[in-house]
User: What shape does this take?
Amino acid sequence: MNKALKEILFTEEQIKDRVKELGIEITHDYMDRDLFMVGILKGSFIFMADLIREINLPVLIDFMSVTSYGRSATSSGEVKILKDLDFSVEGRDVLIVEDIIDTGYTLEYIQKMFITRGARSVRFATFLDKNEARKVDIKVDYRGYFVPNDFIVGYGLDYSEEYRNLPYVAALKEEVYSK
Ligand code: IMP
Ligand code: MG
Assistant: This one.
């Protein structure tokens, strides 16, 4: 294991099984809807890629890029759109796909924006949920796992752009990010 890692939280096999379960749930819930999945870059790209292949429905895919963290490990509460959607959310059932919900500021902002833009519904699918760190009240509709209030990497999640390509999810050692 990489020296910067404290422990592995979820293995590649566990993640595959969990993502499959979420796909079945979403397929069931969106049967008669107009599913539009919006991945929040960059962290969600691996989860999104795996999840859509477990959904047995027609689905429109798009991505949006926002900043909340910059390159450091603390959340500011400010959200800035770096890349907006290619498609309109108007009249669509939007499912926002995130890598991890921490304070919840990012998703709260995006949800309000999509509702203002005329989405029919806005729900959240997050791979990880750091629920102890939540600052705003957000209803998570689909969740892979709860995680402790550590800095988490792998399966798309980074620390300063590193570790996204780990096929598993791990907690970073505190001394790596508290410097
Ligand atoms: P929020 O607005 O505080 O909920 O921030 C959510 C975003 O911060 C996520 O989409 C991640 O990009 C990033 N983030 C929060 N916690 C972690 C973590 O433990 N590891 C990697 N990225 C994180
Ligand atoms: Mg993110």
